[in-house]
Design a protein that fits this description.
This protein is mostly helical. It has one domain.
Amino acid sequence: MDKMPKWADVILIPLISVVLALVVSGLVVALIGESPWRAMQVMVRGAFGSAYGWGYTLYYATNFIFTGLAVAVAFHARLFNIGGEGQAAIGGLGVAIILLNVAWPHWTIALIAALVFSAAFAAAWAAVPAYLQARRGSHIVITTIMFNYIASALLVYLLVNVFRVDGSMAPESARFAETVHLPGGGDFAGFLGFSATTPLNVSIFLALAACVLVWVLIWRTRLGYEIRSFGHSESAAVYAGISPYRITMITMLISGGLAGMMAINVVMGEAERLVLDFVEGAGFVGIAVALMGRSHPVGVVLAALLFGALYQGGAELQFEMPAISREMVVVIQALVILFTGALDNMVRMPMESLFLSLRRRREDAARKTPAE
């Protein structure tokens, strides 16, 4: 018997955790002599108060949906994939290779190719740690962290020595052809006030489609059942004939591919070229998004939107309130992660007790009613 309803687990507990995090953040802001109320107003207005703010919020959220789904899929198999940062970087490499070396007649065809190459490159990168865990016993957390640094170093080398434009000192590739530029928010949602300068692009629809596909995979397919069974109990899964090697490899391939698809939004959509450090921590934020979203696609979307708002609202906060530095914004984000992740039981246990008490009262009332 569940201790509390599913909606409370997916929505109510994360919401309470976020409120607690914001209250503590307000106390920190007050300690440096600024108004917590004004800081909150600036953040909310910066993230949601205009089409400009919405454009950046949704752009960041798109990144976090992909990386959050990547971590969530791995979580279901009890695999802690911390390599989203490196997998996304290698996914960007796949996007650059296919877009720079083939003359595509239209962005729709190029998008399909970039999607395949970004997912394939990132999945291949994730396959190595997966194999090391499945066959050699190397812990997935350690190997994926190490592969983040290897991917970063590899990308620097390639941008400086292979992709860099002759005569340019910038560590970036040439710009992609005009025909492969993705439509931005101003093109498909200009009636909502989005301008041509917004970084929001059609890859947000890919992210939402990925959410649907992950839901179908995990809860409506045999493979998803095997992944969840393996995550709940490896010994029981083995007894049922499920191969740990197969599930570990397939799950990490899917997880890595999802992380790599984040590059579509940034490399193909916003930068329109391969640049250095384009991932910007989205791989690590994906861990918090998956934790907060309870590894469910709906929860991942909501958590990604929250962190997108924190990123955009934090940028506006630094601009309008100079006393609040970038480090302070990072502290606010870290507090949200702390309360939704490490301190989850601080909220969960009292809520479980509350719902259990309410259920017992209803059961007692139901037993007394016939007697009366």
